[in-house]
Amino acid sequence: MQSIRLEDNWVLRLEPGEEIIASLKRFCREQGITAGWVSGIGALSRATLSYFVREEGVYRHHDLNGDHELTSLVGNISLLEGEPFPHLHATLSGPDFAVRGGHLTEGVIGATGELLVSPLGGVLQRRLFSDRGLRLLDLS
After folding, report:
1. In total, how many domains does the chain have?
2. CB contact at 8 A, 109 and 16
3. What is the domain range of residue 15?
4. How far does Cα 140 stand from its chain's mean position?
5. C-alpha closest to that of 23 among 117, 133, 111
6. Going residue by residue through the chain (140 aa), what tens digit of pLDDT does each one get?
7. DSSP 3-state assignment of 15?
8. Which of 68, 65, 85 lies closest to 77 in space, CA to CA?
9. Please, where are the H alpha helices in the chain?
10. Residue 94: C-alpha distances to residues 47, 67, 73 (Å)
11. Residue 60: which CATH number?
């Protein structure tokens, strides 16, 4: 990964084989980022997208193998149990140009990943809300 700070933001370039979530966790830990927003584009060689089934309280996962364009990556950074937690959603397009989207559970860079990390002042905490079965931002 390469990074450059531009004013209050960071621009990251991820290399082939790097996993987006693990790379963001490491970067935020190194830079002391405890709250922020993420956006990005690029190309993935492998991804897992998920969606939450409220009635069952579980995520359903869908693996995408092979080259896909990362047409949009959006999300936020918070802390979960003291560690950086990237909560990311993505849309991907394959060779058939069909778009698939959802919660990004895993994303391995194919050609490149270009991300913008915009730190916020302060700390955002995430905790389990048992009535919904989700780890949500705790804004209390």
Report:
1. 1
2. yes
3. 2-138
4. 24
5. 117
6. 999 999 999 999 999 999 999 999 999 999 999 999 999 999 999 999 999 998 888 999 999 999 999 999 999 999 999 999 999 999 999 999 999 999 999 999 999 999 999 999 899 999 988 888 889 999 98
7. coil
8. 85
9. 20-31
10. 11, 7, 15
11. 3.30.1330.80
Taking a C-beta distance cutoff of 8 angstroms, is the pair 123, 22 a contact? Answer: no
Neighbours of 6 (CB within 10 A): 8
Q: State the pairing for strand pair 58-80/125-129.
A: parallel
- Tell me the two tokens of residue 34: 């405890």
104: left (phi over 0), alpha (psi -120 to 50) or beta: beta
Contact 127, 26 (CB under 8 A): no
Strands (E), the chain: 2-6, 9-14, 36-53, 58-80, 83-93, 99-119, 125-129, 134-138
0.90 exceeded by the pTM? yes
9's tokens = 């933001």
Task: Specify the residue for token string 């995430």.
Answer: 126
Per-residue pLDDT, 130? 80
